[in-house]
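Milestone 3.1: sequence recovery, worked example.
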């Protein structure tokens, strides 16, 4: 993708920008597009989750959550690249959310059932991972200058 001027307000109206943010795993993005896309993505995920809960309960909501995993990963990977982290850095942070969704699809929701301790540990892992993602990807500036993932998006 060609260099994007993230300070231009009109950039958010271009479908190619949204396609890049939510579908492409290459390159780097600064914090502003990360936060804008994350908020938009989470609003749609919340609406999808509420609709799915109304129509099919927890398994349907988990499927909707899994559908939002791809764009969430695409967004986070580009931001991790800006910080100089590899793609595998996010595996540790996204794996628990994926596992919880997978267990929900299979009907394991009761924390007092046979997988209760597993759900409790995964829930704690998800919380720690979310805090780490917000701090590392959302609050800390990316590497200045080019890195192995591309040029500095703010330069």
């Amino acid at each position: 993708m060609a260099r994007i001027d993230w300070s231009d307000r009109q950039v958010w109206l271009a479908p190619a920008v949204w396609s890049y943010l939510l579908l492409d795993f290459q390159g780097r993005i600064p914090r502003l597009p990360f936060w804008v896309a994350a908020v938009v993505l989470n609003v749609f995920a919340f609406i999808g989750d509420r609709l799915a809960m109304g129509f099919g309960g927890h398994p349907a909501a988990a499927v909707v959550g899994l559908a939002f995993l791809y764009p969430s990963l695409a967004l986070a990977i580009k931001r991790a690249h800006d910080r100089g982290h590899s793609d595998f850095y996010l595996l540790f942070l996204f794996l628990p959310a994926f596992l919880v969704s997978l267990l929900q699809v299979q009907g394991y929701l009761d924390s007092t059932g046979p997988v209760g301790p597993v759900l409790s540990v995964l829930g704690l892992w998800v919380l720690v991972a979310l805090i780490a993602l917000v701090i590392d990807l959302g609050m800390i500036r990316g590497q200045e200058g080019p890195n192995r993932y591309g040029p500095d998006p703010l330069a």
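The chain has five helices and no strands. Residues 12-138 form one domain.
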